[in-house]
Design goal:
1018 residues, 8-stranded parallel β-barrel, 7-stranded mixed sheet, single chain, 46% helix
Amino acid sequence: MVLQVQTSTYEAKTQEIAKQLLAATQENRSFFSSLRDQMRWDDKLLAWAMSNPGLRVQLFRFIDTLPALHSKSEVASHLQEYLGDESVELPAALKGMLNFANPDSMPGQVAATTVGTAVETLAHKYISGENIKQVIKTVERLRKEKMAFTIDLLGEAVITEAEAQSYLERYLELIQQLVEASKNWTAIPAIDEADGEPIPKVQVSVKLTAFYSQFDPLDPKGSEERVSDRIRILLRRAKELGAAVHFDMEQYGYKDITLSILKKLLLEEEFRQRADIGVTIQAYLRDSEQDTKDLISWLKQRGYPLTIRLVKGAYWDQETIKAAQKHWPQPVYNEKAASDANFETITQLLLENHQYVYSAIGSHNVRSHSRAIAIAESLNVPRRRFELQVLYGMGDKVAKALVDRGYRVRVYCPYGELLPGMAYLIRRLLENTANSSFLRQNLENRPIEELLAPPIVKAEKNVQTRLMSQRVAGVPSVVATGVASLQSTDAINRVSHFLGAADTDYAEEEMTKKSAQAFQSVRQQLGKTYLPLINGEYVNTPEFVDSLNPSNFSEVVGKVGLISVEQAEQAMQAAKAAFPAWKKTPAKQRADILRKVGDLMELRRAELSAWMALEVGKPVKEADGEVSEAIDFCRYYADEMERLDQGVNYDIPGETNRYIYQPRGIAVVISPWNFPLAIACGMTVAALVSGNCTLLKPAETSSVITAKLTEILIEAGIPKGVFQYVPGRGSQVGAYLINHPDTHVIAFTGSQEVGCRIYADAATLKPGQKHMKRVIAEMGGKNAIIVDESADLDQAVVGVVQSAFGYSGQKCSAASRVIVLQPIYDTFVQRLVEATKSLNIGEAELPSTQVGPVIDANARDRIREYIEKGKVEAKVALELPAPEQGYFIGPVIFSEVSPNAVISQEEIFGPVLAVIRVKDFQEALAVANGTNYALTGGLYSRTPSHIQQAQAEFEVGNLYINRNITGAIVGRQPFGGFKLSGVGSKAGGPDYLLQFLEPRAVTENIQRQGFAPIEGAD
């Protein structure tokens, strides 16, 4: 029977122990006065960061960049760029040091050396060594102080399979060398044994996701298989050598799948009895208490204990920002007090179940440790089943005081090169300098009562209200103090009022199941016939075409009826007849129909995603994002039309002046196959909500998806004749509708060749035509990403791979050129090739697939021709094989490409990437701007002046900095380009609807016999 003790009893004991520990840690300290006496720059930097939030952000951003800078001149110029920012109030000493005219000057070199050395010293405080030899020295010193250890290998993000394999091999080597060294270590009873049981001297901590580069909750089966194979090798070798292995917890999105994989693996016969393995719980997560209860129940079933390491959690800023951007519920507590309270709750839960679980309580907060000790002592928890943990370089005095009290303390020791270790260093610096940090408060001589007070949690609103308040505010203002480039609460609160639809969170098991069920349901409907909708009726047609699954072209997704020119004329006459009534329909009523369309699409989200995967070969996650975009278009344009419908008053005394809008007439929408739902929906509903009657002619290869959109529009209540679905041959029906004298607006997305032809045709006045046609045309791009020498290469490689090979490069916004500066070119190409090699190529519906097929045989053959041209012009860095049964092309990367090569200039619309080498940033911009297109572009850089120059001079409609260049979000990143990329306003932006409207000004003289109504008069 587990002994239960009253919480009040724990509290009294907690306070008593905490005061003793605090007294032991506070001897001989006066932090700020000692800093004034010292001249150590690393301490000064930390002190300044604590007292100056603006400096803190810029300083940490500089530190993040530092490892990428390869000369003192670069360090000096970046120091000036980051810390010379107007938002930063510099301490006198720092201001004096930065007052150099030239980064190459002697003062510039001295500044670079001083700060570089200080940051390196800081890093060595928190990183236990740069190689195994240094780590062994560190842990031997810790053991002399009677402290145990666990070693964590810092490294670049695992983005290639070669890196995942290397991660495993480096851990096997680390364990081997540590165990070898441990043979010479004297046994220390305090840490090497407890209750007569030996405790492994060597322990390592690993991250599950690092064992497979394509780890993804959407693909639980594939991720589990690949990860488990490597984990088994590690666990077997650790057992042979007598070492313990602990699994760290990472971002929230990986939590459930991580726990699921480990639970399954550790029930296998080979591992079931192992008690030298651990898992981690993060107390800042809202569902961590339930996770702990589930783990304890599972351990009871398993029959053998494991360690559960309890930590607060290290990714608070990241989790908060991601949830706000994705419109997902916040997974973390917003208040530190709530995390602290939850930490204490889970501590109690673990210790009260000590016969099933070994508890490892990781914290630097004296109260947290004291609470754990109070509970453990009250329950007489055996020493083997309880230990305390701290991070290397943090809470050293606390650790010593705990050891002196006779407790087993384990120090979490990260090791690795300082370059990849910088992200870890910044998390530690953020933690140390945050206002709410216990370590900081302790250093600032806060009253003991305040330091040791029980956490008081303010009552939060209910989850839905909380989520909505986060959505409106964007992100909590406290994020502004993080490294993320949110420099003031104003920047956060200026977030647009428009709230987009949330993408599916596939980290939730329920969602992956729902997706699988949708595919089953849709597969049962394959091969059906879809007829055009003319004047509210589905009509038969003289010609039909099969829409095929590009992943498997023997599979017919649906048979689509193609209208004749005569039927096109009937549709046009129906639209003319319906226009007068639709024009007079109140804007609010039209807007509400759009909102209903959005709601219906949300209900059918998984099904629509499945149709897209099967008809146009779009991988599931990308298809889901497209459903969100379609929903957003409906809701955003509904809001916009209500805004525009109010018009503008320019009244003066004696005269009213109204500026109002009216619909143009009949809109012809010609939609593409690559965004078969979002673009078709966006152009169509924009025309409809503006009061225009609309004919939708989709691309032949995506006509089933537009038939599904048609079903939704009808269900939402669009009147007959107002919207008509008219699939047909572009050369016949498309041309007829474009040239028709009753067409007022043509909204087109497609190739430059067709777009220019439409533009020319629309400019010709036809007999009987009494207006000029308005053309909105989006015509593609030759999009480039620049990667400079200061870029975060982990981030850049991942972003370029996603931008170039997501949906097989078939997005208007896809990257087909990457322009890389000379100093990092070879390293970048090597990692890019390895990351691309690691992608899974396969059928779009498979959850593991990142690269699906291209749309059809014509596209496949055209792309192959470009690949052959590329082989003549450049060097093949990578050409991946592809499956035979569909229209597949494996990703191809060309290196050493000339900026003027055919593959650098012409739009290929496939998974083909040209990597261009340039000497400096000026040349990079010139090359990026050296095509006929100006749609999207990207820059990976941590040099403020480069970012500023790109914002001013990079000729693109959508510029993305330090992120991938695809996936524009309605109301946040309105989408569209200029030059030969298109004509018209940006989709999803505040002036898009104006293209479908005619503005009018109405003036009335309201004077009668010299008098006029005076506003406000009695």
